[in-house]
Records
---
Amino acid sequence: MVTICLLSIKEELFMDIEWIDGFTISVGYDGHTVTLSANREGLLSLAKQFVAMANEEPGTHIHYDKFNSLEDDSVELIVEKIES
């Protein structure tokens, strides 16, 4: 398992991002539909991250792209918590 700690300098918030070894995640967009595809490890990693984000302040967000987590042919995905 790989853990990355994200820090928001402005608000000094910390959030641990955990990746389960062997994860594979890709995000595609065909002009109409966004498709998120993942293996078991990828889905479990995302689930843990979404639960962690649910406990953070509104505005907390995670960038998923080919440089930090997604397969090379993926489009960037940003997931953000909004106010209730």
---
Amino acid sequence: MLEVLNNYLPDPLFQELQDYCYQNDFERVQAGEKEFEILEIPPEILPYLEIDGYEMNLSFIRRAHKDFDTDWRIHADNIINGKKTLLASVLYINKAEGVSENGTAMWIHEKHGTHLPEDISNEEFDRLLLEDSNDLSKWEKREYIRNKPNRLLTYSATIFHSKYPHIIELGERIVLVAFYC
């Protein structure tokens, strides 16, 4: 499952969200071996992120730029907050002007294909993150969804994906991410 919706939030609400992201300081947090620069999502946005039949397990706004978050980190979303993740979504927030072209790439792994196997062991999942996620010789890019302000990308959490490209040379890539079980 992969769905792209343009002009997702009402324009005034999206403008408020974009302004919020540019006017507030991102906090650097550690999650396992990875650091993220994040902001909390304003509460008025949360109802727009609800998906019938799914429970939102985690959501936040994250940022990447040429000096931070520069690895490929090709991955699939598996267990988040102790729950099996079924769907993930990305709402592109950054302004189009002054930012390098970027988006989300979907990948094919040399052994596992396009999706994380349902029966993957914790050891193999960890190995993929630690050994394969930044080794492009193990991956083939199969699809690219370009960042466009107020575009929502929703996909099966088992699809291998990453930000694209891995380094944002100009400006900042700002996205809201949400995970569902």
---
Amino acid sequence: MPFLSESSFTHDTPRRTAVLLVNLGTPDAPEAGPVRRYLKQFLSDPRVVEIPRLIWWPILNGIILTVRPRKSAAKYATIWSPAGSPLKVYSERQTALLRGYLGERGMDIDVLLAMRYGEPSIDAALAELRARHAERLLIVPMYPQYSATTTATVFDAVHVVLAQTRNVPEVRWVKHFHDHPAYIEALRQSVLAYWKKHGRAQDAGGKLVMSFHGVPRRTLDLGDPYHCECHKTARLLATSLGLSKDEYMVSFQSRFGRAEWLQPYTAPLLEQLGRAGTKRVDVICPGFVADCLETLEEIAQEGKEEFQGTGGGEYHYIPCLNDTPAFIHALADVVQQHTQGWPVSRAETARVEPLLREQVAAAQSLGAAR
């Protein structure tokens, strides 16, 4: 197997520490062509769809990629901003802000962004890190709750590249941060900030609905901890907000196909609350760290129609964490925790410089050119 090209080696080149943030991805434009390319890559992942290829390939290529791209493109168009896809825009801001926050803590770390599907790709990001001589690499999948359908597929994609890499860096992973105190605190501040401006659903006899992305029910039966981690996040957030069990509900959205997924499903739940004459619901999506199609269109738009169309009252969507200071601080805490033992402080990197000069002299004494 041919290996990827490496940057030219010199004994005096500092070896860098890097963080790679990885989110799901987004089409390049709200048009059928880019959406089709994105969906093809996404739905071809065997961790996302565990149907045997012989059965799935004709369905995907003959039906889904023929019908769905145009419909999905119309939905993307309703949330697309002048700056582009909200998911990509917020992810880029998170990357830049995290780099700055780590710098304020005295940490000398490169921070890059990649998308599991679409651009910027994991391949391109790892190529950039090779060029920067990254010797130590922390991978941070931007999914607070672990799932084989999301977090694990990031691991797969990174290892495909590392399998073709001659000089493999030291690699660490963040498996999840669903119960990290700083993440829960960021969620708490987000909800409280929204309630400060708009009041609380509970004061109107309503509920806070925490909607997480759904996955097939069989993944729970087969050992995926995602369902449990979603409920733990919800419980910790509710406790931090001082909510009783009857003041909030947990649901799962974005069901795809006919198989049973984790329940209760968000859309029927909102319709049920509407039919019950609920005067107000507030909906938050704790599993999404950046607003995207599933939050801005499916929850903020469709969810409102489902709730109010069946008789419900006020409907409020609480935005994702996005680029809020509390969330960037939480990310910085996670990174600082997982890079312990690595020379990441500016003081440590400064101490390396004279050692590099000694290293060059020793190498040249043995015949090295540089």
---
Amino acid sequence: MPFLKKLKLALIYDGLTKSEYQAAESYIIKENNRRLRIYNIIAVVFVMALFVYSLIVRGFTLITTIYLGSVMVNALILCLLYSKLQNNKIFSTITNYFFTTFFLLFSIYSGTITSNGMPATMFLATISIIPYILYTKALPGFIHRLIILCIFIVLSYKTKSAEYFRTDLINSIVVFLLSSFAGGRIRKLQVNGWLLASNQDKELEKMSGMLEVIRIIDLADNSSIDYSSFGSEKKVVGTNSNALKQMEAFVENNVEENNLVHMRQFCDLATLEDRMFSQKVLICDFASNDVAWRRATFVVIEDDNKGFPKKVVFTIQLIADAFYLNMLDFDLKQIK
């Protein structure tokens, strides 16, 4: 691939192709909105506290009014993040940039206008973490932070002594460049992870039509959720707070007598963590009560970084029904 094309993909799509980025985009929007809900709750509580303090100490001044307006806007965005707009690409982008701009401008205000007799440590801390807390495309995100940096430098020059201004200028540029580079690496890992999740969901969605049971099991808290299918159209069809007993009941009620012993061992959640250490998949074929053959599968979807599974998906797939087996038995007899 030519260098200029690689550079373009790196700046616009973090190294992915346009089609790959579009495949991962729904995951990006979902994750950004999840984080924004948390950040906006924190922002509403924090700025509300500042508003109350400012109202008591200063009365209804300009800064008190700004605090009140900020609380109202963040509360409105928080409500919208729980509405149907939450999956809208344009809304997600606007709220993303609004929150980061609000966060950065607030830190500029605190680091220049209200603290002009010291270096701006709050702004440095803020601009260093912005590339990590929300995902933005490389080039637009870089330009956005660069504009904010320029605003900070101008205000620092206007409000501070030459000594503090020089300190702010050098520190802010160094932190900006380092955080942009490190944030780019983290962003690339994130978007590749979302692309992988998107591809896995597509494959699982293709498979789900052949599966009779789709169960996500949390081994840590012994709970499970049953789904109708994989992918974007999946629906919850049942939950259970005791997955261990649920699996035991499944074996006793569905497995043919001669297959009970090995299926009890296979579906034993008490030993599953050790059996699936450093493994991704466990498979077991069994005969069920209706004399059909089925395939039970455990697939690890989350581990503890030491090789032990934390969450698994349990599936049952019909691999040969009773009619087929009877026909096969008849054919074998004819051959004999």
